[in-house]
Every structure is written in structure tokens, then in C-alpha cells.
Design a protein that fits this description.
Elements (H helix, E strand, L loop, with lengths): L5 E2 L2 E2 L12 E3 L8 E3 L5 E3 L5 H7 L26 E2 L5 H6 L14 E5 L5 E10 L2 E3 L4 E2 L2 E11 L13 E3 L7 H7 L6 E6 L11 E5 L10 E4 L8 E9 L6 E10 L6 E3 L3 H9 L5 E3 L8 E3 L17 E5 L4 E4 L5 E3 L5 E3 L1 E3 L8 E3 L7 E6 L4 E6 L14
Organism: Dendrobium chrysotoxum (Orchid)
InterPro entries: Aspartic_peptidase_A1, PEPTIDASE_A1, Peptidase_aspartic_dom_sf, TAXi_C, TAXi_N
Protein name: Peptidase A1 domain-containing protein
Length: 397
């Protein structure tokens, strides 16, 4: 879920897998922070690389300690006595290569290499292992799941490092995703959802929660909109994009959006991005220097101390879909506060990272319950007062 990092004034951290509270709790993995990503393959950094694995990979990649994600000492590396390495000619390996470009010989282990929207890369070997999951009512199940045993993780460009996260929880539409595997085994409906807190860690709070399955009490204010037929991404059907509540503030028509909580920021294609800049730069605030990552910033006579200080300075962005329903992205879900107390735009040009589509990232999902219902091909969206734990907080719109 960012690749989510801490930013002064707007703290964002990854949802903890140990807090999959609603329908499934991953209780017997090591204490572990994961990004919830719309890719298919889940990946966990592996400490000991077996001789067989090393023989398979060291012809191309050096497996040095510096290649591993830096995990704090209190978190152990992923180790298991029941782990089984998948060979390249097995169906699971064919499934994972549906979403990757790497090919291998049938005599080798199943090696994968995946690049994410934020230019991060994960490399490793596909394995299966048995996990203990506890259902909402407390009864346990022990499914065998395929995951990536990651021997290398790198992150470059705008979307920063993984220093506070220890793996990737892939919940995409591919056959190899955790969601698809659990559904195929008859454990859960093909539905999941999440809520990312805007204030993780405050007063003992958590970063948010997620759930898998249909046994969940949705917020009454949940707005259901059609999911696009895109087989690779969770996407909204085309929408009008409006800045504020005036027709004169139209930013773009027939705009499709990918939803990916594994990317921190939100991205707009040109010319819609340029239209947005035209609107937001009309603010009465003074221009301020950027912080390196955020080039478009403003300042007031006094430093901003809360993202809520900006609610009356900038308008909400609305995505109005063809069914007449609209999804709101308030100012606090596309702006951040820097350490210097400046307000900066958290929406970027898709071209900056060579995206060919609009993308709604984690910044715009804060305090929003989002449900991905693959069975009815719909997405639910509800702004809520907080994401500390189910049942979901009070609706705010």
C-alpha cells in the first residue's frame, strides 16, 4: 500500500498484515508490514537462499546482503520449514508469468521479476507455503499459497524506498494473487476492501485495515460504481473530472482511472493535469519552494501545521461517472504538509513516470473505505471519519 512513506504533517505508513481484522487475520506470519498492491504476486523477503536457489540465480544476479529489504531487527526474515520451491514447468509458474516478462527453462526453478507502477522492482523465486488464517468468527483454516520469495527489492525515482515495509501483498486480478488463490480454494468470495488511515500511530492507532470476503458490514454511505473490464488493473469506468462543484471547473471528460494503493501519489494525464494546475494555482496563497519531491507548493503568513488547514483554501476534485454517481477527493487527499510548513500538491503528471493512464494512489484513499467486488464487477467508495478498526467509522459525505 505506498509504497507509503512518512511525510511530515501527513503521515502515511503501510497497513500491517497482522491487522487484517475484518474477515481474515494473518496471525502466524512474523510481525510483518506489507504494501497492499494491485499487482498479482505477493512477495516476502527471504533470508537464507538455499543452495538450489543460489545455483539457479547466481549466474545472473549476485545475492548480496545489500540486495535485501532492510528490516528492523525486531522483525525476523521470512523462514519456514514447509516452504517448497516451484519449478518453471509447474502451472503456478505459468500463472505468475501471465503478468511478467521473464521466461525460464523447464529445468529451472520459477524465477520472477516484477516492476510496479512506481518503478520499484522485485526479483526472486516462486514458492508455496502453508499459512494459518483465522476467520472473522475465530475458526482457523490453513491454505497452501504461492508467494514470491524475494531476494532483491529496489525502489527508484519519485516514490522512495521500502525501509518501513517488509513485503508486498498482491491482490490483483491475476490467477496468482492471494485473493484469487483463496477464492479458487473455496475459502472466500472474490471480494476485498481496505481503509487507509490519515493518522496512523496517533494515540496508539493503526495504519488502517483490510478484509477479504463478503462477510463485512459496509458503511451505509458506500457508493457503488462499475468496475471497468480492464483485466490487468482495478479501474473505474470513464468519468468527468471536476475541480469544485461548478461545471466551469471541468478538468477532463472520458477519463479512466486505475486504483492502486501500492502507489503513494495520484497521477493525471495531460492535458487534464495542466488544467488542474491552472485551477489550483489560482489560490491566494504565496508560491513556495518545493521539497525535492513536490515541486508545486504554497505558503501562508504562518507555517501550516495540519492538513485540515487547507480544506477552505482548495476545492475537492470530483469524479462523476456515467451512472450519475460521483466520487469525491477532498483537498486533504491530494495535498501534503512539508516539514517547513508548506502545502504541496500530491498529484503529479503521469508522464513523469511514463504512465499511460490516470492513477489514484494511496494519498487519495486516506479515510476512505474502498471495496473491490470482483463478483459483481463493482467498486465501492465511502469517505469515513477514520480507519482505526471495523466497524467503519462515521461517514463524512
Amino acid at each position: 500500500m505506498e509504497r507509503m512513506q512518512k511525510q511530515k504533517g501527513q503521515v502515511m505508513q503501510p497497513v500491517t498484515m497482522a491487522v487484517l481484522i475484518a474477515v481474515v487475520i494473518l496471525s502466524e506470519l512474523p510481525s510483518f508490514s506489507a504494501l497492499i498492491n494491485s499487482s498479482s504476486l505477493s512477495a516476502i523477503p527471504e533470508k537464507p537462499v538455499s543452495r538450489l536457489a543460489a545455483d539457479t540465480m547466481d549466474k545472473t544476479y549476485k545475492l548480496l546482503p545489500s540486495n535485501f529489504v532492510k528490516i528492523p531487527e525486531r522483525y525476523p526474515w521470512y523462514e519456514s520449514q514447509s516452504i517448497r520451491y516451484i519449478r518453471c514447468d509447474e502451472p503456478l509458474c505459468i500463472d505468475v508469468h501471465e503478468s511478467t516478462t521473464h521466461k525460464c527453462k523447464n529445468t529451472e526453478l520459477c524465477y520472477y521479476e516484477i516492476s510496479y507502477h512506481d518503478e520499484a522492482t522485485s526479483k526472486g523465486l516462486l514458492v508455496t507455503d502453508t499459512f494459518a488464517l483465522h476467520l472473522k468468527g475465530g475458526s482457523p483454516i490453513s491454505p497452501t499459497l504461492a508467494i514470491g520469495s524475494s531476494t532483491y527489492y529496489s525502489s527508484k525515482g519519485r516514490l522512495n524506498s521500502q525501509s518501513t515495509t517488509h513485503g508486498m501483498l498482491g491482490l490483483g486480478k491475476g490467477k496468482i494473487s492471494i485473493l484469487s488463490q483463496l477464492h479458487k480454494q473455496g475459502n472466500f468470495a472474490n471480494i476485498f476492501g481496505h481503509c487507509l488511515s490519515s493518522n496512523p500511530g496517533v494515540s496508539g492507532g493503526v495504519s488502517g485495515f483490510m478484509f477479504i470476503g463478503k462477510d463485512f458490514d459496509y458503511p451505509r454511505c458506500l457508493t457503488w460504481v462499475p468496475m471497468s473490464s480492464d483485466v490487468s488493473h482495478y479501474s473505474l469506468t470513464t468519468a468527468e473530472v471536476i475541480y469544485g462543484d461548478h461545471e466551469q471547473s471541468l478538468l477532463g471528460r472520458n477519463q479512466a482511472f486505475v486504483l492502486d494503493s501500492g502507489t503513494t501519489d495520484t497521477y493525471f494525464l495531460d492535458p487534464m493535469y495542466q488544467e488542474l494546475l491552472t485551477k489550483v494555482t489560482k489560490t491566494t496563497l504565496q508560491k513556495a519552494p518545493g521539497d525535492g519531491k513536490h515541486p508545486i507548493c504554497w505558503k501562508d503568513t504562518r507555517p501550516f501545521t495540519s492538513i485540515l488547514d487547507l480544506k477552505n483554501r482548495f476545492s475537492s476534485i470530483y469524479l462523476r461517472l456515467q451512472n450519475g454517481k460521483a466520487l469525491e477527493i477532498p483537498a486533504e487527499n491530494y495535498l501534503i504538509i512539508t516539514e517547513a510548513g508548506y502545502a504541496c500538491l500530491g498529484i503529479f503528471n503521469s508522464g513523469d513516470i511514463e504512465l499511460s493512464f490516470n492513477l489514484i494512489g494511496a494519498i487519495s484513499m486516506q479515510n476512505v473505505t474502498i471495496v473491490y467486488d470482483n463478483e459483481r464487477q463493482q467498486i465501492g467508495w465511502a469517505r469515513v471519519a477514520g480507519c482505526s478498526q471495523p466497524p467503519v467509522g462515521i461517514c463524512t459525505s
